[in-house]
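Thread: quick sanity check before group meeting

JM: Hey all, I'm pulling together slides for Thursday and realized we never actually wrote out the predicted structure for the chain we discussed last week. Dropping the sequence here so it's in one place. If anyone has concerns about the input, flag it before I start.
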Amino acid sequence: MQSSLNHHGRFCVGAAVATLALAGSLGGCASHDDRLMAPAARPKVERTLTVSEFYNGSAKAEHTAAPVSPEVAAGPTATGDNSTPGATTGAPTEAAAAPASGGDRAALPAAVSHAGLVGQVNGRPIYVSEFFAPIADELRILGAKVSRRDFIAQAYPLIQRQLAELVKNELVYAEAEASLTDNERVGLIHFLQQLEGDVTRERGRVAQNERMMAETGLGVDEVLELERRRQLVLFKIQSAIRKRVIISWRDVQRYYRDHQAEFNPPASIQLRLLSVKADDAALRKEIEQSLAEGYLFSTLAEEHSTILASRGGLMEPVLLSQGVDGTALTAWPEVDQVARTLKKGECGGPVIVGDRAIWTCVENLDDGSGRSLYDVQHEIESRLFQDRYREQEQKYLAELFARGNMDDFENMAILLLDIAMQRWAAPE
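JM (edit): ok, ran it. Output follows.
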């Protein structure tokens, strides 16, 4: 697995970045004003510090890695040499979602079995124990519940996402480390000093280090380094992408105009009905008591109503084209009369109509007044920012993958799947 992405065009950048997008970026889309500058705010850290939010698994080497089994030896092939680095192609195809039962694939390099080494990203080795630490419990539970074949289908996307997240963090970290300004370095140092003080305040550095090593296998220095890397990755992604996202007032206006039905819906009402036999006095008393005690109207309708029981008594919305007073709401004028006196969330009845006793509840009521552009401008801006942030994040990560130095993504993923099968899948 000595070939790198720089030397060979076999890694499918588009599929890997689409997988990476599913994994999600560290911290998601941040607010517009976050900055890594001195002085940094004091971090909130639990005094006992389980380090679960920092812990990405121990990077200690494992001594063996079994060869790839026949079940996963045939899997999704890497792209040909004519692939275009950095091209985004959307989500992986169905064939790439899990290893196939047949077909050819690139042979795994012999180097992957060295001391539990899976591969490398920018010169940093990826070890089996480090990789599986965050997802081992999930794979263990999956292996105990499903067949060996289903384990392959469900575990492979999970492994792809975890590997993509790990690769992404390494690629982003390298760029972040190289691009920090002096002021940003001061801010990061200040933040870590604050964090170290919080971690060691209760017991002192030596005692806390011993406790953390016993509980997690990580000492204070390792936790601080993991958090330093996490902060750098988060800051780099946010700062690199945020400057690419520009939302203009014209964009907000256009979005509002294109979504008129959402922001200015027509007046409408939606009711729930509960109908029982009028001569069943015991049931009517039980329903009245249940409503008084706060039982959900929909639950009572599911249990007892002779109409729309499967939908909890929920009717289709009725457009109030003639206003609430001039529009027929149900098939029973007596029920309509009660419904018109209710507000959203209120219930009334029962009304005796023939041999039925009918209760009604207003599920939704929109008076058609809508919301103006002034009322929703910040909501629209936030939506546009989130959408464009995700688009630009995917482009940025595709660029990183294209110029990064790493071993073949698919080879690493399939090797990891084989190891997961040997550890956690049901026996053959």
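AS: nice. Confidence is low (pLDDT under 50) at residues 1-67, 73-97, 100-114. The beta strands are 117-121, 124-127, 268-277, 318-319, 347-353, 356-366.
JM: adding both to the slides.
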